[in-house]
Amino acid sequence: MRRHPRVDEGELSWMRQAVVDRESCAAAAAAAGLPEAFAAAAPRERAEAAADLATRLSVRAALAEAVVGAAWLDLGVEPTRSGVLEAFAPAIEAALPGSRDPKTTLQEEAARRRLAVAYELTDAQGPPQRRVFTTRVRLDGRPMGEGSGPSKQASEQAAAAQALRAIAGQASC
What we know:
single chain; Double Stranded RNA Binding Domain; 3 strands; 14% strand
């Protein structure tokens, strides 16, 4: 709000969501070395499992959330606030007014055009801790994009981004 005083509450809410999403939390955890600390703290007989877990996006995000919560309880609001602002600085800088994630942008564009949006998980490969998901997005039943990622949500975002590129290509023809 302080950075963008003229931006309305709804837009600020979208920007906040982008700052604290799973990917941003996982990136902050990785930058702080939390996955490595998590794996190193595991008992020797569980070290391999902990190292595998530490590679998962959801676990890295949970580590960031846990450390923020623990810091708030132990240190209080102000020290935690400054640490969070530093840890999430890249995500905060990337959150610009008017920027939305691809799924939201596609949903808004489809609504303007009165098109139904449907996501279909088409594939999931790899072991549970390193699974890669593939999703197809359809607009009014027509396949418009396909994407892959380490989570269903990430694969849907990638599919939506491809669909947006396809729609932009159609509009320019």
